[in-house]
Amino acid sequence: MSPDSAAPFFTTDRNRFARAGVLLAIYFVLLAGCHYISYEIRFDFIVPPEYQTGRLASLALATPLGLIFLLFFGQFGSLLTYFSIPDLLRIVGAMAASMLCTFALSLVVMRGAVLPRGVLLIDFVLSVAALSTFRLVLRIYRERYAGGPMQSRRLVRRIAILGAGDAGASLAHEALSKPSLGLKPIFFLDDNPRKRGALIHGLPVLGGLEDIGALRELHRVDTCVLAMPSLPGRRVQQVYRMLAAEGLKVEIVPTLAELTTGRVQVTKIRPVQVEDLLAREAVNLQSMELENLVTERVVLVSGAGGSIGSELCRQIASLNPKRLLMVEQSEGSLFAIEQELNAAGYGTVALPLIADVLDGARMRFILGRYTPDVIFHAAAHKHVYMMERQPGEAVKNNTTGTRRFAELASELGVATFVLISTDKAINPTSVMGATKRLAEMHLQVIQNRPGNRTRFIAVRFGNVLGSSGSVIPIFKQQIAAGGPVTVTHPEVTRYFMTIPEAVGLVLQTAVLGQGGEIFVLDMGSPVKIIDLARNLIELSGLRPDEDIEIKFTGLRPGEKLFEELQHHTEQLQPTTHPRVMRFVSSPPPEEWRQMCIGEVEDPCHGLNGQGQPVELEPNQLKQLLKKLVPEYTPFLD
């Protein structure tokens, strides 16, 4: 090794020894000072002459022993600016061992000189306090003052934290200890009157949320941060409107689902979104039953790259499955969820598989090779208006794809098969809803076949906030373009759920189902789309009908004015979960299945009953769908 290449090593080595020397000197001064002062405290600062010689002797004994035990407990090798409870415990252990050895050795080394036990106890307390204070000061300096020149130029926002619970306290602690975040907490507000007047991390709880108007006159606040992740959406909406009326900027901590899964930290505050205004109480999952269903089992999710499928993958991966099979036709969507799960540490569990559920040979290979215990079938065509114009494709994917996949699962003995359905399958007015209803009925037929061992379950729920193609991303694009925001009808309503809430309840149905049921999720109260549009415009800092026009376009083919919860032939029954209900209806006969395949499904694949090419017109196909689903009301051109 040349002298030039060796120079950095020796330079680093010299720096290390220099730092160790400085630290040794500081520890020596602190320990010696504490031992010396302990005599003064013990004798009320008038040390008798007969103890003066003993003090010097004990000082020469105690200080080296303290340094030795600090070295033994690893306090010379730790980074000084990082100090926490484990470091404190090591300092306490080192000083306790030093005190005991000093007392034992003093009986021999000092040859009868008196070493008061009170001096040792005072020395122990002072040494622990001095060393801990030294380390704590260095940590505070690193966190608050050693951010560099970029930090000093960063704009610091003065924030009021709304919510003095765990989330609010965590946010205040992080903001105070990390100035690089650019947040300076000023005070707390909380609806709980018992917390008012208290201090949290040195910050006062000055009142309730409604007191912000008066308090902002006394304390300059740039932003209010809503730090109550479990707050219902209705209350969030009330607080947001109140703060917006005061001219205050409002931000919010991540949702409870995001915090509990560890995806984000409480400091990742963001602007209030419409999902926050519609949020409800978190889903209470029966974790033991879910663990029995998923843990150490092979679980397959079809449509794994979609909004529902990807969230299913996230939640299932967190339940420690033996293998998570992610089946998806779109390569780009599958790559995205694969990378996300890899980054979250689930790379050894999650297996991406490119496949189309209509490809029977490929699906047979996957089920035969990996033998899944549970299947969540989320692959589907879901866009109402698009499927209305090409109904044959909806039949292929939603009906035939589900039927063939379910028949294969039954043949190979998969334990549980869960179909992700929709509330649009109830008294459908769209091709999409009708094809999903056909899929539900196929599952009931297969469930009742002799020899079937698979539990087939269908789950209905409404619109999912933030999913691809949903109304909210469309509204956001229209607002960003300056309007107008288009709403089909002033009275149109829809049920909405957040993606994590919907998926959590879907997982719950897999536990509750015995086979052949159709479950419906508690979707709360329907939301007027016009109100949703107004909320989005206001959240963008604009005024509805003034800055952004709202334009009514009329209902499109296949769309309902409002969604329904059940068909008149279905009997609603409660379950053990308050947010999940069960529908029980008689399964169609085997003749119905044969008619569905021969008159609807085969023609959509270009075949008639004799295997000859055929093609149906959209209106003709819709009439055939109505024959199989009598409650279907088709839109005919």
Provide key terms for this protein.
637 residues, alpha/beta, Rossmann fold, 3 domains, nine-stranded mixed β-sheet, seven-stranded mixed β-sheet, 14% strand, elongated, disordered N terminus
CATH level 4 superfamily of the largest domain? NAD(P)-binding Rossmann-like Domain
- Stretches where pLDDT falls below 50 for ≥5 residues? 1-12, 148-153
Q: Largest sheet, if any?
A: 9 strands, mixed
How much strand content do the residues show?
5-15%
What shape does the CA trace take? elongated
Briefly note the structural class of the backbone.
alpha/beta
Task: Write structural notes for this entry.
There is one protein chain. This protein is α/β, with parallel strands linked by helices and 637 residues long. The chain folds into three domains: 137 residues, no CATH class; 122 residues, NAD(P)-binding Rossmann-like Domain (Rossmann fold), CATH 3.40.50.720; 337 residues, NAD(P)-binding Rossmann-like Domain (Rossmann fold). α2 packs across α3, α16 runs parallel beside α17 and α17 crosses α22.
